[in-house]
């Protein structure tokens, strides 16, 4: 570990580091698990440069999102001990690295049904957030009716498609097809009863398992949305399966057509995220959804 970083951690926490090990956190960041002489175990993310100057500000936004989830929900997330633009220090969530079994999935359903059951006043959020390292705009509207489709179209689907096109990751033809498809979303999507706070990035790597329970959720991408977009994301990489949906729908029934139609439409957003981050291998999924709907 960089000695300056070690001294910085000890200084801001008022405790000496007695051990540390590297963690893989991705996106050019340095990750650590460390033990302090006061008995705490911590997780650390830092800019990989020696100055960890936080040029992107991503860690400050991640800290904000974790604090918001911690304050506004019962979802188990790390406690933020310290944050600044290039450094994030959190409590370590004990986990055994286990797989998401049916029991774990059912626990996840209980946690997410409770999260999604809370009523928030508007879609979006009080400030912009991130999904991975990418900007996620959260323009707010004060009405609770007939506006979710507009928010999803403008601030998720078209925003991410246009950003991908600007970066050269998405062709003009693909962008045109997505824009045309976006004009018809009112025919396919439904409005929720109310805006719900969502974690926003529920793939397996962001879920920490302890025994047959979920120990915690990390790396959020929060905003207020239709819960269906969260549920759809869990299907993209097989995070949760039938046990999850059976338990979730017993608590919060879904309107007909989610699994058959709306799920894949919502997953256009994370697919576009992955096109920007990882390249053209994710275009096939986008193409299949657009063709299935005639675009």
* Shape category: globular
Give unreliable regions as ranges.
Answer: 50-55
Write out the CATH superfamily name of the largest domain. Aminoglycoside phosphotransferase (APH), C-terminal lobe
CATH topology of the largest domain: Aminoglycoside 3'-phosphotransferase, Chain: A, domain 2
Q: What is the rounded distance between the termini?
A: 51 Å
Structural class: alpha+beta
Share of β-strand residues = 15-25%
User: For the CA atoms, what is the radius of gyration?
Assistant: 20 Å
CATH architecture annotation name of the largest domain: Alpha-Beta Complex
- Helical content band: 40-55%
Whole-number average pLDDT? Answer: 93
Biggest beta-sheet profile:
5 strands, antiparallel
Identify the strand order in the major beta sheet. 1-2-3-5-4
Count of discrete alpha- or pi-helical segments spanning 4 or more residues:
10
Count of the separate structural domains:
2
Spell out the key features of this protein.
295 residues, alpha+beta, Phosphorylase Kinase, domain 1, Aminoglycoside 3'-phosphotransferase, Chain: A, domain 2, five-stranded antiparallel sheet, two-stranded antiparallel ribbon, 10 helices, 11 strands, globular
